[in-house]
Specification:
270 residues, nine-stranded mixed beta sheet, 8 helices, 9 strands, globular
């Protein structure tokens, strides 16, 4: 006679996916939202250029631009505010929106200093492009991940590549309208991958028929790549923009930035 206490039990008749059917689904995360310093009375903002700083070099550069004015912030409910300083800092986990001038169509900067999970990227992109903010043109600054690049990236060299929406590329080919942005950069090699928030933003521009350019740089940190990004911005995007970044500030992104703790911060979403 079998001993039900000591004999090995038979294998389960259920698969793991079947067992998950008995587990209630996780509650949906609240939607991200915008907070502006002054109400816009239902009127969308229409900047001439909307710049997204996602990479550490671009965040470090715009942090040292004194002429910018804080006009709003993006609230992602799952990101805690604990540890943030009163004044904007590269150490903060924040997503602030700045204006570079007071014109009717200013240049606006969105400094993304916290990690955005891939499943939240489309919600952020939809929030920032095409509803409350309708830009004429968009520039996204991000870093390329070595695992997504088809080829070898030397840590001793600096690189920058670009991708464009069809409308931006058409204007570059036809020569009509605004001058092409980052015209001297090579295109991102075929077979390489762009993902997460950068891809969602560029895809949103394509869907809304907005001229959009994505610039990715390598490596993720360091003075040389910060110097490269700074020269690209001052030459082709915001010429004459006053800034206070020096060699010390260029090396600052070795210590601060959204990407540095990306793998640790991803635990927030598991």
């Amino acid at each position: 006679m079998e001993d039900v206490l000591t004999d090995i039990p038979p294998p389960s008749r259920f698969f793991m996916e079947d067992l998950n059917n008995f587990t209630p689904p996780s509650p949906a995360l609240p939607s991200p939202f915008l907070l502006f310093s002054t109400p816009n009375h239902g009127k969308p903002l229409c900047p001439s250029l909307l710049i997204f700083a996602l990479s550490s070099p671009s965040l470090s550069f715009f942090h040292h631009v004194s002429s910018k004015t804080l006009i709003g912030t993006v609230i992602l409910p799952e990101i805690p505010f604990s540890g943030n300083s009163v004044e904007p800092s590269l150490r903060d986990k924040s997503c602030n929106i700045y204006a570079l001038n007071d014109n009717d169509k200013p240049i606006m900067i969105v400094a993304v200093q916290y990690p955005v999970a891939p499943e939240r990227s489309h919600a952020i992109a939809k929030l920032l492009i095409g509803d409350q903010i309708i830009p004429e043109r968009v520039l996204v600054l991000d870093s390329v991940q070595s695992c997504n690049f088809r080829g070898k990236l030397s840590p001793d060299d600096t690189y920058a590549f670009k991708l464009e929406t069809s409308l931006e590329r058409k204007g570059s080919v036809d020569g009509h309208g605004d001058s092409p942005m980052l015209n001297d950069l090579d295109y991102f090699p075929s077979g390489s991958v762009i993902d997460a928030l950068a891809a969602a933003l560029l895809g949103r521009c394509q869907m809304k028929k907005i001229k959009g350019t994505l610039c990715v740089s390598w490596p993720e940190f360091g003075g040389p790549v910060t110097s490269l990004v700074k020269s690209l911005l001052l030459k082709d995007v915001v010429p004459g923009l006053e800034h206070s970044i020096d060699e010390k500030g260029e090396d600052e992104c070795l210590r601060f930035g959204r990407t540095k703790n990306h793998h640790l911060d991803s635990e927030l979403y598991t």
